[in-house]
Amino acid sequence: MRRPWVAGNWKMNGLRETNALLAKGLSLLAAEREIDICVAPPAPYWLQVVDAMEGTGVRVLAQNVSEHAGGAHTGEHSVSMLQDCGLAGALVGHSERRQLHGETDVVVAEKFAAVRKAGLQPVLCVGETLDERRAGETLSVVSRQLLAVLESQGPDAFDGAVLAYEPVWAIGTGLTATPEQAQAVHASLRAVMAAFDADRAGQLRIVYGGSVKAGNAAGLFAMPDIDGALVGGASLDAQEFLGICHAVRQRL
Ligand SMILES: O=C[C@H](O)COP(=O)(O)O
User: Fold this and answer.
1) What CATH number should be reported for the domain holding residue 235?
2) Of 7, 35, 5, 64, whose CA–CA distance to 230 is shortest?
3) Which ligand 1 atom is the nearest neighbour of the CA of 9?
4) What is the ipTM of this complex?
5) 80: domain range?
6) CA 107 – ligand 1 centroid, Å
7) pLDDT at 27
C-alpha cells in the first residue's frame, strides 16, 4: 500500500495576505492524517507558510533548489537553507525549470542528490512536450529523465522520494491527460524502476500533474499506478485543493 501524496505548487503566485488566506483555508487538512500533503510556496514566503501550517501536518516544499552547497550563486538557495527554514523537501526538474531555465538531466540529477543527501524529500518531475508526444517519444523522454537519476544514484536514491509525471502539454493549459494516458506512462515508469529493483518499484509513489482539479481527480486516482497529484493552478483555491485531497482518499 503506497501512501497517497498530494502537493500544491503555488509557482510564482501569492503575496503575504493571500498566502495567509490560503493557508487558513488549508488548515482543514489537519484531519487528513493518512495522506501526505505538501505545499510549495515561493521562497520569500517559506517561513510564513511553515508557521501557518504548524500543527496541520501539511509539509512545505521548495519549488527548486541549488545543486551547490553554498557560495557565489546569486539568486539560488541551498538545501541547508531549506532545512534551516523547516522545509521537508524540494521539487527538482519541474518542466518550467527545464524549459525556461535550461536545466539539463544532469543538473536535475545533481539537485536530486543534494536534496536526498540532506535527508529531505526530492520530488523528481518528468514529462514530455506536445511535439514529443506527437512524435511517439513520450516513453523514451520520461524514461531518459528518470534514468538520469537512477543510473547515477541507484534505485535506493528513491527511498522516500516521489516521482511526478507532468506532461508539459497538460500544465496550465486545461488539457488533462486522460486517466488511461497517465496510467500508461506511470506503469512504464514503474517498469523502468523495476528493472533496477522490483521491490522499490512497487513502493515508489508516482503522482500525476497537469490541470488536476477537484472535478477530474477521482478518475485519475482510480488508476492503479497514480498515487497522488502535483497540483498547480487548482492549489491556489483552498476548496479545489481540499477537494483533490479528499478525492485521493479513495486509494486508502
Ligand atoms: O507543478 C504543477 C504542475 O505544473 C501542474 O500545473 P497545473 O495544475 O496548473 O496544470
Assistant:
1) 3.20.20.70
2) 7
3) 1
4) 0.99
5) 5-251
6) 21
7) 85
